[in-house]
Amino acid sequence: MATNCRIADLRCKEVINLCDGCRMGYVGDVEIDVVCGRVIALVVPGRCRFFGLFGREEDFIIPWEAIDKIGDDIILVRHDRPLPRRDRKKWWPPAR
Predict the structure, then answer these.
(1) Distance between CA 27 and CA 42 in Å, rounded?
(2) What is the rounded distance in angstroms from the CA atom of residue 7 to the CA atom of residue 75?
(3) Which residues of the chain have pLDDT under 70?
């Protein structure tokens, strides 16, 4: 069993939140601390609004500590409220 994974391999994996069973999407980017050389968070782009005509929802920031398991096809995370990327003070999901 390999314990190493490239960032390009992470982009092919779907992220699933174990707290609510939500399929969050695929990894779009990775935040890295270049001084320490470690991954800080995964970034999952928000879903398209109305066929992509009205932009996207907020991106999710998933801290590395919230990752439960990285499998061959999926990444399981345990995070109550992933932080949106553009506005880190606003919590997900939005009020309905």
Answers:
(1) 7
(2) 13
(3) 1-2, 47-57, 81-96
0.85 cut: is pTM over it?
A: no
pLDDT tens, 18-31?
A: 888 888 889 988 99
Q: Report the run of H or E that residue 9 belongs to, with start and end.
A: helix 7-10
Amino acid at 88: R
Rounded to whole angstroms, the Cα distance separating 51 from 7 reads 28
Tokens of 57: 């929802």
Q: How far is CA 53 from CA 24, 47, 49, 56, 69, in A?
A: 20, 12, 7, 9, 34
